[in-house]
Amino acid sequence: MSDAQAPETWHAALHRLQRAGTPHVLATQVTSAGSTPREPGARMVITNDATFDTLGGGTFEWQTIAAARAQLKEQRYGFSLEAFSLGGRSGQCCGGFVNILLEAFPGASTHVAVFGAGHVGQEIVKLSVPLPWQLHWYDSRRNVFNEHDRQQPRLSCHELHSAKENTSELPPNTHALVLTHNHDEDYALITALIERDDLASIGLIGSDSKWASFQGRLKRDGYSTEQIERVRSPIGRIHTTKLSNKTPYAIALTVVTELLWLTDTPSPPDTRGLEPQALRTLFDDSPTTMS
After folding, report:
1. Same domain, 230 and 279
2. Does the pLDDT value for residue 192 go beyond 60?
């Protein structure tokens, strides 16, 4: 038997990409007439740089891929319908006709990195999982993440090996929260994060005295005032008054609420369903090529 890995199927790719928050398109052959490479129900998944499974190959598949990638590039998410006369628009010799439904998914537009899987970190992640954020969760302790954590959508769990190395992996515009079990680890992470000028925000858990100590240490280590002022500490202080309830859940609520304000963006347009004309064409007994 060959040791070569089998190609990833469309449903496996769809599951993985949706968990990872990666923009992608699901292309489904919904109707066919005459001779066509595959039957209705055939599917493939398309990203900006890869495809998974096939609609039968040929020119019309390449045109489908091009149409899907155009939707991703132009951020036209939701449903659209592409029609191909196999001999007309696609230049193939089958002579049949297919309608392809494209479902474009935007993926996660917001990335949040949580450094620390203690009580507050766990509550922050629990509250954040239902939100449309891609979560990157780090901790230096072994076996701190359970199987349930690893199976959550849009949540990736990592062992924290090196502050410098792990923070360099974060996507640009990530919102970073530092709340590990160790002050020295917190400091190493803060120094690594403020050296990046492309992060959306940096937050540090702790008291006013902890942050005052960190500020003095950062100044002595040569960091500029501008770099130091990028750190928000303590995190979750929505009002000027201090929160008297300091349970992990209460702190997590204020932290996630603060992140909601920091990540607030306009809701995407309602893209449910297809235009009536597209549906009429789809179910017409005598289909005609759509532009």
Report:
1. no
2. yes
